[in-house]
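To fix ideas at the outset, we first show an illustrative case, written as a sequence plus integers encoding its fold:
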Amino acid sequence: MKYVHEVLKQKESSIWSIAPNDSVYNAIAKMADHAVGALLVVDKDPAYPGPSRDERHLVGIISERDYARKVILKNKQSQSIPVNEIMSREVISVTSHVHIDECMRLMQTHHVRHLPVIDQGRIIGVLSSRDLFSAIIADQAQTIDHLEHYIRGEAL
């Protein structure tokens, strides 16, 4: 099985984020534009190209689930609600040296679908449950292939 840093190498490295005072509408539009189910909420403007970009720190996460439960079901207007009003503030995160089995356990225990990856205080990526399932399936396919070669007596 793989570690987080190995999975991150195999996926797109973009980290999509939004500021806490931005509107929920803008967050949902950004999720749609980038085909993601959640955005990290950071305390600096994510588009800022300067040296402080790496110094941004995570203050929350907003997901499509937050939007459905805290905006749509409560019949609120997403244009007038800031992200920080509905975001999840207690974010479960991992480092790049965590085993993906531990990531799956964390996701299951905390009922989350996205795990920010933070090394030495710096956001380096985000793993989704889909990323982890894909890594596990690829790993299992490789194991099956090795076993088939072994059974047939073939060298790899």
In short: The domain at 4-152 is CATH 3.10.580.10 (CBS-domain). The beta strands are 17-18, 38-42, 58-63, 114-119, 122-128. The first helix runs from residue 4 to 9. The chain has one domain: 4-152.
